Amino acid sequence: MTLANVRNFCIIAHIDHGKSTLADRLIQRCGGVADREFRDQILDSMDLERERGITIKSNTVTLLYDANNGERYQLNLIDTPGHVDFSHEVRRSLMSCEGALILVDASQGVEAQTVANLYIAMEYELELLPVINKIDLPAADPERAREEIDADLGLDPFEAVLVSAKLGQGIDELLEAIVEKLPPPTGDATKSLQALIFDAQYDAYRGVVVVCKVEEGTLKPGQNIRLMHTDKEYEVEEVGLLQLKRVKKPELPAGAVGYVIANIKTIRDIAIGDTITDVANPAPEPLPGYKEAKPVVFSSIYPMSTDEYEDLTKALDKLTLNDPALTYEKDSSAALGFGFRCGFLGLLHLDVVQERLQREYGLSLLLSAPSVRYRITLENGDVQMIDNPSDYPDPMSIATSEEPYIKASIMMPERYVGVIMELCRDRRGENSTFTYLSVGRVELTSELPLAEVLFDFYDRLKTVTQGYGSFDYEMLDYRETRIVKVDILVNAERVDALSQLVHEDKSRARALHYCERLANTIPKQQFKIAIQGAIGAKIIARTTINAYRKDVTAKCYGGDITRKRKLIEKQKEGKKRMKMVGSVEIPQSAFVAVLKTDES
Amino acid sequence: MSPSNRPGLYVHVPFCSAICPYCDFAVITGDADRRSRYVEHLLRELEISSGLSDFDTLYFGGGTPSQLSHDDLRAVGERARLASDCRVFLEANPEDVTHVSASRWREAGVSTLSLGVQSFDDDALSFLGRRHDAADANRAIETAREAGFETLSLDLIFGLPGQTLAQWRRILDAALAHEPEHLSCYQLTIHDDTLFGRRKREGKLLEMGDERQTDLFLETHRYLCDAGYDGYEVSNFSRGAEHRSRHNEKYWDHTPYLGVGPSAHSFDGRVRSWNERSLFAWQKWIDSGALPVSGKESLDNDQLLLETIVLRLRTRDGLDFDAIIERFNVDLLASNRGLVDRLCDEGLVELDGHCLRPTLEGLAVADSLASSLQLPDKPCQPNLQ
Ligand SMILES: Nc1nc2c(ncn2[C@@H]2O[C@H](COP(=O)(O)OP(=O)(O)O)[C@@H](O)[C@H]2O)c(=O)[nH]1
Ligand code: SF4
Predict the structure, then answer these.
(1) Which domains does chain A have, with CATH numbers?
(2) Gap from B267 CA to chain A (nearest CA, Å)
């Protein structure tokens, strides 16, 4: 197949506008697949992703389409993860496409998320093809959708293809439009090999299955390849296309999107965004845009009950097979027992890992407050990277502290610039500037401490822009800062799992917030309980839980004793699930409430 | 602890002339016919329940035992295998107390009369759905006094919605005016399956808040203590140890007891069993010659120990660690040293030699004191006795 007959594209849509349904329909039309049997395997495979409306792992499928002009086309539908934590992977996926379908629900019109994603697609200079879906609905208003495509997306409304993904209406027209309007990839199969790795899966029998787009040259079995960034060499065993199942091919020429199996043992051996080249005839340089997927957010994960520690260990082992960005090492807390200090790409990555551990592995977990990694220079010149409050050195020994900054890029309609500037200022943003992307569309960049983004930033952003803001960031550098370690004390005993590293200016507010949450969730006990926030010996926040004064029942005669004993047995049982801090029983719900990250 | 370890006998009399809206006892209204059938069955039950004998207390509770005739009472006393020095307790409602009935109860051997006066405030009494007013209560008490019971006990209820400390003190004063030897003061408890429970769910009855309940509870003990009463249990007060309820103390120190009548509980030192709650089911079993038991449990040592802790901490005599070592072969004090010190510091308990005594403030939180004591990890070894 010649390059001219290849199309690489993705679908950009607001959740529920029918992306999965449309993908199914395209697959069905091209592959003769009956009903939705592939739904579970293809695009959006994890139900977790479905519920959250995001795609975590990209999945790719190659469709063969016989067009009206009598030619056979190879259509590579590349699914894209939809959230900023995975921006790395989104970018990689988008880089593999030449075009994108912008899907709009005819009954809903253009939604904020579509606009936000569109900005990113535009950055990659993708050819955009608007598609209006759900035209079968009585409430469908394709004309209004067209207007919005013009006004909000700035696309040609008359290019829009009208479809009903559900009924299969307009699918042929759409396929024709894909072939006609989207450009074929460029590249030269005879040049030295450059293939971009944009996805990978672990297969228990074959090892790592790398998904890539060949930009230049040709990839074929027997070839010795080198991964240019990780600098590892392998011999290609098999290449092919992902037509729902893996279909072996003699080679993958420039422009092709497919898989490579090369006896790679673990996902950790490869890096998304890396470039594959030929050892015998290497490319002079890798493809641009590679960045190492480094964990930047850290949190300790503890099992709710200590006997689940083994299960947690196993689950993390398994999870990292397909999620190399997740790192973990042993950690322990006096209050919560043994656990793991884990590193994540961002808060959403953390959320997703937590949910997968809970849902797929049936674990109940407690997570400590997420932290960034600080660079601490001691008076004696030693430099330490600290993300765990328990490793925080004696403040007297510290010469300087630095914290990671990001360059945040926020794209939004012009009318939100004011509130976003305000938000960035509140989060200690520096050098905020904005530029007009086009009429009414603005990109604001700001240099923000990553730590400020960990607490509720994304949600705030979505709220104040009513969903129209898109947020993306890249790591910038470390800058000098004033951090302190805030401890939470319950009756003068430190609750180690609640300690955190915070910017000095925000320490009091954070400490008070924790104290209040604890006071609201720890039940009254026989003793008065003092809850304090402290920096070293200095108390910066304080609340009190008064002792309860009476719980005894009035009567306890012959007929009451059994009931009474059972009640006390139950209470004692309940206490086993409480964590003792000194003499105070803290229910798990208190930890859960305190460690929720919904507010700062 | 109790001066005797001879068993007690409890007789449940399930009849009341009307059902009070807060009552969750096994009670029923009954005519003379029902009552005589009930008494027949009671006597049969006494016959077939073997095991315990030599009862040194006989307690007629209910319900309203004063609805039984003195002949019935006497018949029960005769059928039971009572000790010669057995004390007989009778609960009575004020409206049933007359010169005639009181002197007949005396003749039938009743030594302690426990009067369900509940209040001396007419509004409170009508709120509680009682069939007497304050004047009836006063008259009943005087009548009982004249009959010359050794111990006269008055039952009172506090913590009615909106009740103030002053109102409650006035009620206590009215009771103290009669110089009763014994008082039981119960905080109003609203049980789900009662009329009050329903009103509460419907939002028509507002239960008193915790803080005010606590104030009333503490005040009750302080006030009665000042008046010379010993609050020897959460809800019980006596003038001198000889007027304590010898029968009820058996419940609190695991002395065996036999309970007869619907819903009555029995305990033999290890096994606790309970009778059918419904009068008719109870009668049916007895008709068929079987014990009318609807459930039982055999307590292991951990359970016995836990009950001991729970029950003793409700009493001012408290928990005797030496007695625990002797009975269960575990050193509870050793395994709770830190906690006990802490509770002492907080003024909730006092450690008096080998006895852990709740203070008044401790008594108010007796249930959680009990659940905070750590049971030793190793299973208790029974000390064969
Ligand atoms: N009536 C109608 N419903 C559709 C159409 N396409 C998708 N849907 C429905 O819209 C909902 C969301 O579709 P889905 O493909 O899961 O959306 P996604 O979240 O974008 O992947 C589902 O209930 C679909 O059945 C369509 O063309 N017409
Ligand atoms: S008189 Fe006593 S037993 Fe009878 S219904 Fe009233 S509270 Fe219950």
Answers:
(1) 3-181 (3.40.50.300), 194-278 (2.40.30.10), 297-368 (3.30.70.870), 389-481 (3.30.70.240), 484-595 (3.30.70.2570)
(2) 8
